[in-house]
Amino acid sequence: MNESARPGGLDDAPRWRRFLPVVVIIAGVIAYFALGLHRYVSFDTVRAHRGELVAWVANHRALAMCVFFVGYVLIIALSLPIGALGTLLGGFLFGIVMGTTLSVIAATVGATLVFLAARGAFADVLRRRAGAWFARMEDGLRRHAFSYLLFLRFVPVFPFWLINIVPAFFRVPTRTFAATTFLGIIPGTAVYASVGAGLDKVFDKGRTPDLDTLRDPNLLLPLAALALLSLVPVVWSWLRGRREKT
User: Fold this and answer.
1) Burial group, residue 24, by CB count within 10 angstroms (0-12, 13-18, 19+)
2) pLDDT truncated to tens, each residue of the chain (246 aa)?
3) Terminal CA-to-CA distance of the chain, rounded, Å?
4) In 1-14, which positions are buried (b, 16+ CB within 10 angstroms) versus exposed (e)?
5) 221 and 215 in contact (C-beta within 8 Å)?
6) CB neighbour class for 236 (10 Å; exposed up to 12, middle 13-18, buried from 19)
7) Taking Cα atoms as reference points, which of 142, 135, 200, 222 lies closest to residue 174?
8) Which residues contact 103 (CB under 8 A, 6 or more apart)?
9) Which residues contact 105 (CB under 8 A, 6 or more apart)?
10) Domain boundaries along the sequence of the chain
11) Distance CA 201, CA 70 (A)
12) Pick from 71, 70, 61, 73: which is nearest to 98 by CA?
């Protein structure tokens, strides 16, 4: 049974409740900029307070991990343009392994919240207004949702926030969205966390971290190979369908 068609599901929710999560997200974004928080969340702030941050994490590691996790979830859920900074900070404060782990899980939670909010508010409206082409596209995407979404996560071409929203319009199962997000962002997140682990050396030289790391051909090629590998089930299904028609 489709998730949104279950009793008590999205189809049964009052209209205002469907849009409430989206309103909360928009309000959070407005508050972030209206309060001027974007002027304080920067590499310069991390550079200026790195000593205090490191000391606080050393003395309150468990609490620091919880604060970082919640903060990262909010960054992704509100689609704030500081996700890269958050990942670098995770690597700087907690090391590559723990920084990657916290960032990946938090990003998956935040992305899933955005996905659910968009699906609840807009998916049914779009479906009613769209024609038969939408149904055909939806059918194709849902049959190979895991491969398509994993491909998009492996290749950092499209904005992260966009991939959080678009699948919501096509009734992609939540577990598929969450699983592909979790698996697909591990490589890129690990790269950024490793850069973050070396922030001390970067700051000592008076420089800013290079955020074009993922555009390095030495990293893009392995990511592209993983992305193409994720499409193997789609290609196999297409070849099998052609063989059955002949």
Assistant:
1) middle
2) 455 444 444 555 566 677 888 889 999 999 999 998 888 888 888 988 999 999 999 999 999 999 999 999 999 999 999 999 999 999 999 999 999 999 999 999 999 999 999 888 776 666 666 555 556 666 667 778 898 898 888 887 788 988 998 888 888 899 999 999 999 999 989 989 998 998 888 888 777 776 665 566 655 566 666 666 666 666 656 555 656 565
3) 34
4) eeeeeeeeebeeee
5) no
6) exposed
7) 142
8) 72, 86, 87, 90, 189, 192, 193
9) 69, 182
10) 3-245
11) 27
12) 61
Here the tokens at position 95 are: 């090391």
Type of residue numbered 35: L
- What is the rounded distance in angstroms from the CA atom of residue 90 to the CA atom of residue 178? 21
- Two tokens, residue 34: 């209206």
Tokens of 152: 């998009």
What's the one-letter identity of residue 175?
R
Q: How far apart are CA 170 and CA 144, in angstroms?
A: 12
Question: The tokens of 207 are what?
Answer: 């420089």
**Which residues, other chains included, contact 126 with Cβ-Cβ below 8 Å and sequence gap of 6+?**
134, 169
Confidence (pTM) = 0.80
